[in-house]
Amino acid sequence: MSGLIFLACIILVVPSTYQESLGGLVELDEVSFNKLVPKFDATVVKFDVAYPYGDKHDTYVALSKESKDVDNLLFAQVGVKDYGEKDNEAFAKKYGADKNNFPVVKLFLKDKSKPITFDDSEEFTIDRLRQFVREQSGIYLSLPGCIRSLDLLAIKFKNSDTDKRKSIAKETEKVLENLSKEVAGNGKIYKTIMEKILEKGDDFIQTEITRVNKLLAGKISNEKKNELSQRINILKSFLLPLKNYKEEL
């Protein structure tokens, strides 16, 4: 809560037109970084040019907006100038960011001394960025195709013994009955995965992810690609760490 109050004070003194250009992001320098970041469980920081633009910036802003109601998660950016007084240049270099590799996205966790770097060597997409934050921080961000209530059951299932897993599979059936038609198909995937794990063991998850990734690498329609990508997202829900969701379970 103290972090949110501090953040509100910062926003109040920033001109409204500039706030709009940041898309809800908090602009940091080294001083405000040291004051604000420790107040959040997780902070995503993009080191970039002073006035960023382009697809990567738009992607980052989009996830920031999407995550605005997530407690204890902050999206921020550090604008770096390589001219004049060279604002934030030394600060950015401290974290391995400079004009030759901008933008650089780092995830700072309250209980970790060093940040985790987002690897954008493949793609800088909202899905990959969202998945990175979710997997590394344990903070729930819904991936395309995933259903929160079933994600929680997937975590519970994966961390239970065989008898308990059978009970959770039955519980899943009840949840499926109440799903809308739009998401019912994806809901059934959770149940299918549970049945396969009961039959083949936990190794099924990684084996299936590998199999589906091979299909994605082939020549398939955009519709099929989207369907398979969502299947992988659901499979990865079974791998989310239990410790981050104990209170909800």
Automatic annotation (TrEMBL):
Chain segments annotated as transmembrane: none
Keyword GTP-binding: no
Entry keyword Signal: yes
SUPFAM superfamilies: ERP29 C domain-like (SSF47933), Thioredoxin-like (SSF52833)
InterPro entries: ERp29, ERp29_C, ERp29_C_sf, ERp29_N, Thioredoxin-like_sf
Biological process terms in GO annotation: protein secretion
Top-level taxonomic group: Eukaryota
CDD domains associated with the record: ERp29c
Leader sequence segment: 1-19
Domain Endoplasmic reticulum resident protein 29 C-terminal: from-to ranges: 145-238
Domain ERp29 N-terminal per the UniProt entry, residue ranges: 24-144
Pfam family, one: ERp29
Keywords, in A-Z order: Endoplasmic reticulum, Signal
GO-annotated cellular components: endoplasmic reticulum lumen
Name of the protein this chain belongs to: Endoplasmic reticulum resident protein 29
Source organism of the structure: Danaus plexippus plexippus
